[in-house]
Amino acid sequence: MKDILEQLEERRTDARLGGGQARIDAQNERGKLTARERIELLLDEGSFEEYDMFVAHRCTDFGMENNRPYGDGVVTGWGTINGRMVYVFSQDFTVLGGSVSATHAQKICKIMDMAMQNGAPVIGINDSGGARIQEGVDSLAGYGEVFQRNIEASGVVPQISLVMGPCAGGAVYSPAMTDFIFMVKDTSYMFVTGPDVVKTVTNEQVTAEELGGAVTHTRKSSVADGAFENDVEALAEVRRLIDFLPLNNREKPPVRPFFDNVDRIESSLDTLIPENPNLPYDMKELILKVADEGDFYEIQEEFAKNMITGFIRLEGRTVGVVANQPLVLAGVLDIDSARKAARFVRFCDCFEIPILTFVDVPGFLPGTGQEYRGVIKHGAKLLFAYGEATVPKVTVITRKAYGGAYVVMASKHLRADVNYAWPTSEVAVMGAKGATEIIHRADLGDPDKIAAHAKEYEDRFANPFVAAERGFIDEVIMPHSTRKRVARAFASLRNKKVVTPWKKHDNIPL
Ligand code: HXC
């Protein structure tokens, strides 16, 4: 018996060594942690339950029958993050470059199936040379099975990808279908075709980092939702994110203990809006002052900065925040900001996370650059996402809410539940200057008349009261009491139920 136990321990030690000490050292020398070190940092200490430690591939081509390491290049199982269950797979680059064989894919599929069955998120740590070349179509079939599960799990359990090494070719499409992608600067990349193919086909010279590194994907392409300095920071931030999320779509987000007075008055908000309506201010100040303990988890911080998206808590409960940012492009809506916010709104709606919207939007960005790239369709995404979302929706207009953008940004007409406005709000078809130049075109040569018309327009429309008269704004609130008003609004909506007409699924403009 003792021998058998020792043999088991030996096998385990062998499996834990992955591709061997030399390859582990090489991995660490590149500034990367190993698959197992990453799992240890991601999960609560001692909580990891590993599955399929002794799985080995079945390939017999190219001498592979003599190279059958335990685990087959991916470590899988489940554990907890602050006591809440998550499933995890972590590709082991030290074993055959983390390449995906049929059995490697089967291991991932097994934990994805269990995650869906048992209602817990899947966190995938990607560090792989892609399809195991020696296995040919068996490897591609394995990817296909993973893709299909990504699709089935979408909207059922949160799926989070950490890209911590190579992720190229068709392999990128598994993370691409998950809810959030996080990358590590300088040690990870994602692209459909690498620099060599790019050079051959288009003659462009580009490094892997420039083509598909963390900075590229968080600033330019918006493929990734966050870029971190190193593995340790990335793993810690995913732990923080998981704390905001429900484990599945049938569960409410967790309620955390909070030590922040919900009635907290923020007098400084009364002077947040500058006197001159053309001057910007930082919308993040409002978000931080409303949130429990000023804790804000921003998503896509580096992309389309004219729109802010992320999670806060109110009375310990997760709330998704969408806000125009007047500091960037005056907070205008454009293709990038509409897409960013639409995807975020849909994530919140999938997982029963209420949505808080702060509005200060002068309209849509004009120009051929926008129209040729389809701002009509992309803007419609946000409109559609807000209108179809059945989670509690609370909106606060702080200043401008002009034209179509007023309707889009979670207006009453898109079934927002509670719509507040600060007294500094202006709800109108457009600003006074533009409006006057259109409706009083005949007086354009007479500056005095134009100024008088503009003043008349401002007096009539540069306020929230016309909308409030019609019930489109439920209440004009004091800026300093925003936290309390918003928290109470969400409290009143906790049992919200909406019945929508039966359909297979909608057809959001893609
Ligand atoms: C089998 C692989 C492999 C792969 C790497 N290895 N990728 N084995 N299949 N796809 C092995 C190497 O042979 C090597 O084994 C070990 O992993 C480490 O690789 P190195 O090349 O030494 O590492 P490095 O220099 O860091 O380069 C990493 C790399 C490179 C850039 C990822 O390995 C590479 O280009 N690999 C091939 C990438 C590729 O073309 N994959 C297929 C893409 S198509 P030894 O024993 O020497 O240490 C794809 C389609 C998916 O993935 C489709 C889904 C539908």
Task: Provide keyphrases for this structure.
about 500 residues, alpha/beta, 2-enoyl-CoA Hydratase, Chain A, domain 1, eight-stranded mixed β-sheet, seven-stranded mixed β-sheet, 17 strands, binds hexanoyl-coenzyme A, ligase, ClpP/crotonase-like_dom_sf, transferase, transferase activity, propionyl-CoA carboxylase activity
Give an account of the 3D structure:
Helix 5 links the parallel strand 4 (122-126) and strand 5. The chain folds into 3 domains: 2-242, 2-enoyl-CoA Hydratase, Chain A, domain 1 (Alpha-Beta Complex); 267-425 and 463-492, 2-enoyl-CoA Hydratase, Chain A, domain 1 (Alpha-Beta Complex); 431-462, no CATH class. The strands form 3 sheets. Strands 10, 11, 12, 13, 14, 15, 16 and 17 form an 8-stranded mixed beta sheet that branches. It has a 7-stranded mixed beta sheet with strand order 1-2-3-4-5-7-9, sandwiched between helices. A two-stranded parallel ribbon has the order 6-8. The chain is built from 19 helices and 17 strands. The chain has 510 residues and is an alpha/beta fold. Residues 96-97, 99, 129-133, 140, 143, 166, 168-171 line the site of hexanoyl-coenzyme A (HXC). InterPro entries: AccD/PCCB, AcCoA_carboxyl_beta, ClpP/crotonase-like_dom_sf, COA_CT_C, COA_CT_N. Residues 1-257 form the CoA carboxyltransferase N-terminal domain. This is Propionyl-CoA carboxylase beta chain. Residues 264-504 form the CoA carboxyltransferase C-terminal domain. Keywords: Ligase, Transferase.
